[in-house]
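lol ok so funny story. i was supposed to be doing the assay writeup but got distracted and ended up predicting the structure for this chain instead. priorities right. anyway since i did it might as well share w the group, maybe its usefull for someone
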Amino acid sequence: MFNIKKGDTMRYLVSSILIIFSFALFSCESSENSILSTDNLVKNSDNPTKLKFDRRIDILDLDDIFISTKEIDGTIGGEITLDTVFTNLQGNLISIEASLIIEPNSFTGTKNITIRPDPSSGSIEFSPHLTFNVPAKLDLKFTGIDLSRLGFNYHDKVDFVFRADDGTVEFIVKDKCNMNWNENKLYVKKARLPHFSRYIFVRKND
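and the output, tada:
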């Protein structure tokens, strides 16, 4: 048998406690780093990497999370994009793809343009409020969203419009706007935006 002195036993216990404490601290730090903060979620269009989230997110709590901001010179123009995939609390995979093209000579000066899509309402908001000399062009697609929750039925036709705060609607020109019920998809292509505000997918009246 080994002859362990009292002093050696105390040193062994102290060393064991320090090792356990260090391991616990490292585990906490790793856990914290695996949770995405709001800063992690902000997508700048200069970085084309698709955002993909391993944790589940409540689709009703997306305000100020999925946004893309870029400085645009109105004389030169430019493009702002956002490409995001996440899983909601129900385990459904949802993707958001948006591309906004600002044409040359659209406005005067340089501005930070922000796009903020919201799959919970089938809408997208732009800031700051601007009126363009040349309409901006938007491609937008939501996939995996609950279309019935947005008020659509499988046989509905959809439109993409500007909706003011007072509920009035302004129809806009676009190349294509459609809904795919089986894929839970809403999309619009080359929507011409005469100004910045909030645009939304709505049921189209025949």
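DSSP finds two helices and twelve strands in the chain. The longest helix spans residues 6-34.
back to the writeup now i swear
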